[in-house]
Write a structure and sequence with these properties.
Helix content: 25-40%
Oligomer: single chain
InterPro entries: Acyl_CoA_acyltransferase, GNAT_dom, Ribosomal_N-acetyltransferase
Radius of gyration: 16 Å
Organism: Streptomyces filamentosus (Streptomyces roseosporus)
Distance between the termini: 36 Å
GO molecular function, one term: protein N-terminal-serine acetyltransferase activity
Low-confidence stretches: none
Largest sheet: 8 strands, mixed
Pfam families: Acetyltransf_3
Strand content: 25-35%
CATH topology: Aminopeptidase
Number of strands: 8
Number of domains: 1
CATH superfamily: Gcn5-related N-acetyltransferase (GNAT)
Strand order of the largest sheet: 1-2-3-4-5-6-8-7
Order of helices and strands: EEHHHEEEHEHEE
CATH class: Alpha Beta
Protein name: N-acetyltransferase
């Protein structure tokens, strides 16, 4: 039996909103597909086509409908422009942990969107969903993503050597975590 998840709308600070994916988010998928890194670590299609973009959005809906996780779009509140994505993935929920992943389109980097989204989803996951441990992995060279995790209160735990395949090669990852006991 699968559990359908309702992806809520969440405030992410004063400047951003998190919401479920919509068909109108295809321009965001198209921009992300042209990024040198995002398609390597996500299911964002590269090269982009309308059909591939629509299939990506449908996969986000399926993740919620099959109970595998909560996929959100990060939207700037001032102009309702989608600027990135964040997901809370429940594959290990039976073990008391969930993982997070996030990305921001190149045109929106440096605005604090990912950190605001990560704080919002982490707080919601720990407090409202009652997940005891949240974790995320960042490649050691990706200092912007590491700063984002730390700005959201995540603690660096260590280096996982040859942890994950990226672009056909096994890559080291830094493990970050946030526990329910870390909340104020």
């Amino acid at each position: 039996m699968t559990t359908h998840l309702d992806v809520p709308r969440l405030a992410a600070g004063d400047r951003f909103l998190l919401r479920p994916w919509e068909r109108g988010d295809l321009p965001l998928v198209q921009e992300a597909s042209a990024d040198a890194y995002i398609p390597l670590i996500t299911t964002v299609p590269s090269p982009y086509s309308r059909e591939a973009g629509e299939a990506f959005v449908r996969r986000q809906w399926e993740r919620a409908s099959t109970g595998t996780g909560y996929p959100f779009v990060i939207v700037r509140t001032e102009d309702r422009c989608p600027v990135g994505a964040i997901g809370l993935w429940l594959r290990d929920a039976h073990e008391g942990r969930a993982s997070l992943g996030y990305w921001t389109a190149g045109s929106a980097r440096g605005q604090g969107a990912a950190a605001a989204a990560l704080r919002a989803v982490a707080s919601w996951g720990l407090a409202d969903l009652g997940i005891p441990r949240l974790q995320l992995c960042v490649e050691p060279w990706n200092t912007a993503s590491a700063r984002t995790a730390e700005a959201a209160g995540f603690h660096r735990e260590g280096l996982l050597r040859s942890w994950q395949p990226v672009d056909g090669r096994r890559r080291d990852m830094l493990m970050y975590s946030l526990l329910s006991t870390d909340l104020p």
